[in-house]
Write a structure and sequence with these properties.
Layout lengths: L1 E2 L2 E2 L15 E4 L13 E5 L5 H9 L3 E4 L8 H10 L11 H9 L5 E6 L27 E9 L4 E8 L11
Parallel strand pairs: 3-4, 4-5
Antiparallel strand pairs: 1-2, 6-8, 7-8
Length: about 170
């Protein structure tokens, strides 16, 4: 695990993920110059630079276009990945990516390792970044699936299910 330039070493992995069918990267602005192309799928926006699309095509990189404007349309991107045969995605992003997927309702489970460190402060990265919550009602509710101690230094693995908020049906007057 990494925090800034600091590493917290685990004695062994929490779990062994299954072999992935692809490495999916979200690059809406089209800024990455790709060198490794094997198994790569890029998700970008319609308004990414033309030179970026040219690079993807010249290098034979599979890509998905999902939305335009300030952000990738994550729901549309996930739908297109589903149509390509993907049924399970593992998200390994920073707080901004994690927060965007959570706010879009696209996270079913959270697997989190807590190291025995207390870090905080304004501007400190968090697991789920995003707009300031105005109410606790907007927080994601979680249901605990499993807890497991990791190693002998006090780390713990938490596995949660994200609870879906029930939509209230509007009554006609």
């Amino acid at each position: 695990m990494v925090y800034g330039n600091h590493w917290v070493e685990l004695d062994k992995p929490v779990y062994q993920p299954k072999k992935s069918k692809a490495y999916i990267v979200f690059d809406g602005r089209g800024r990455i110059n790709w060198y490794q192309t094997e198994g790569l799928i890029v998700v970008t926006r319609e308004d990414a630079p033309d030179t970026y699309f040219k690079q993807l095509e010249e290098k034979g990189i599979t890509y998905i276009v999902a939305g335009k404007g300030e952000h990738i349309d994550l729901s549309l991107a996930v739908q297109k990945l589903y149509e390509m045969g993907f049924r399970t995605l593992g998200l390994s992003g920073g707080g901004s990516v994690n927060g965007a997927f959570l706010r879009a309702g696209l996270i079913d489970e959270i697997s989190l390792v807590i190291a025995p460190l207390a870090i905080g402060g304004i501007g400190t990265p968090s697991v789920f970044d995003g707009e300031v919550l105005n109410s606790i009602d907007n927080a994601a509710s979680l249901e605990l699936i499993n807890v497991k101690p990791i190693g002998d230094k006090g780390a713990v693995w938490l596995h949660y299910r994200v609870c879906r908020k029930k939509k209230v049906k509007e009554e006609k007057s």
